[in-house]
Amino acid sequence: xxxxxxxxxxxxxxxxxxxxxxxxxxxxxxxxxxxxxxxxxxxxxxxxxxxxxxxxxxxxxxxxxxxxxxxxxxxxxxxxxxxxxxxxxxxxxxxxxxxxxxxxxxxxxxxxxxxxxxxxxxxxxxxxxxxxxxxxxxxxxxxxxxxxxxxxxxxxxxxxxxxxxxxxxxxxxxxxxxxxxxxxxxxxxxxxxxxxxxxxxxxxxxxxxxxxxxxxxxxxxxxxxxxxxxxxxxxxxxxxxxxxxxxxxxxxxxxxxxxxxxxxxxxxxxxxxxxxxxxxxxxxxxxxxxxx
Length: 292
Known about the structure:
Blueprint: E1 2-6, H1 14-25, E2 29-33, E3 39-43, E4 46-50, E5 60-63, H2 71-82, E6 86-87, H3 91-97, H4 100-109, E7 117-120, H5 123-132, E8 138-146, E9 149-154, H6 157-169, E10 174-178, E11 185-193, E12 196-204, E13 219-222, H7 227-240, E14 244-252, E15 257-263, H8 269-275, H9 279-291
Parallel strand pairs: 1-2, 1-5, 5-6
Antiparallel strand pairs: 3-4, 7-10, 8-9, 8-10, 11-12, 11-14, 12-13, 14-15
């Protein structure tokens, strides 16, 4: 099977390197392809690709765009999907997951418990939402935030005002969530692949940081994914139509478990490191199963 890993990052980037290695071990041919180097063409006869890819098409596409996803990347995914190429995470699901509030809306509509979140599109409903959430401190997220980037903790309006003016004046909505300090919560990440739990870990922020992301220096520890966590993670991926997903969950002091967000291109360096599992191999096997 000819697998294309669609990414703007190079061979040394951990997920790309590991996926290429895993494909080789499983006797699959895999190539790293930059979406900006693919010439897309439509005409009266349908869709095609030009240039060096005129006569070469993948059997399966694995999008690995994540925080770097741009319009041209989404366009390439959509193009190949319409041409009949199997895609591990379809265009519609990636588009939905790329907006944190759209994905939370979908999860809530499917009766999946999510963290209480308000959407602010202007100063007036920001003030209303702030009051409903109990005031400052407040966590504010940009809709396309990922790996902790675009996530802010504010303790007063003076701190939040520059971001509000910049984003709201540009017509960008913001997600607002009640701040739960690290000592009052437990953070988890469950990795879903092909309708199964590939691994799970607990996350703890580094000292002085409220975000628990592994990429920001947070510590990770392998955990057994109990029935409730597994159910929420699998249902979340299913509701968004994702074959591969990283599901972030939070548990408060009362033991209530809620979904924080779902990522369509989850990194897995921390997961492999703390669990010792071959996550890259599991993803390639998911691809092989999806293609049949």
